[in-house]
Amino acid sequence: MNSGLSSLALLAGSLPGLVLLSLGQTVVVVCVCFDMIRALSVPRSHRRYVATTVFTTLVWPSIVISGVSALIYAASGTWLNVAGGVFVMVMMIFRWRHGGDEDNWWKGKGKKLATWFRNQTASRTVTAPAAA
Length: 132
Known about the structure:
Mean pLDDT: 85
Oligomer: single chain
Low-confidence stretches: none
């Protein structure tokens, strides 16, 4: 086993590692629950809007957490847990990519954030006061 993977497996077995893994799995469960709410809600309703916003916000951290968990399970040699972690990760990617074109808080924010960032980093010209 690679020394990095063995240290990762040792970290996962320690108390701080177990707490981090538990918090990460909690984020994954919350993401999947909001995906279920999104799937069962009436289209164009406030409930679906909120569920889609929370799902879109949590899907990237959940994918990373599932990948790291699968890597930790692979380092530990528990292959059934590796298969489960990879399945959850692929399912979240599929639901995120094929969820449809739904309205959420993040829709259109990319252009607004880019404009704000451009305005914040633009060089400001300061005019010198006129000499009397």
